[in-house]
Amino acid sequence: MRIFLGVTGASGALYGARSLTALTAGGHHVGLCISDAGARVISHEILGEGPRPASYADVRERFVHRFAEGPGAVDLLDHDDIACSFASGSSGARAALIAPCSTSTLGRIAHGTGDNLIHRVAEVMLKERGDLVLIPRETPLSLIQLRNMVAVTEAGGVILPASPGLYAGPETIDDLVDFVVGKALDVLRIDHVLFTRWGEPRIATGEDAP
What we know:
alpha/beta
């Protein structure tokens, strides 16, 4: 499956990282686009090097190297490359995930005023009736942000807040992140084993695994 993954400048870069790992491990072809603000968050939250990286390109390359797994493939796309295949409704790509989705990106999508590839792909998914999932990570929410979420939902997108469930007994931050990413993949109808579903035995991981 070809799927677009956008990573924007909201806190929660791990949602994008885990999404990339799950998709590539599942054998999917991922078109990955990281905004400059997204690269800043990755540099700060994941690489531990602060929010002002010397090279955005280096951050993007290191992100792919660290989190992409076989047998899937990754095309690292420039956020200004609106001529790439994912920017066209004829590309055949039917799914896009923006994880995390900043509220400014949300507003651009809601009002059709995009100016980069991430915005354009979201617009394509909505007009082509493809699958679009946005994972916002913001709290509390203003009335403007709530109205933008309604607008995207009315247009056919899915707003999936970064709100992990606790019923499976999460023990680590990774467990919390996996729950949210797994819910996004559920919406996109992509198989995964990221979390324990209600009523199922707990998935053994780490020291619990046989």
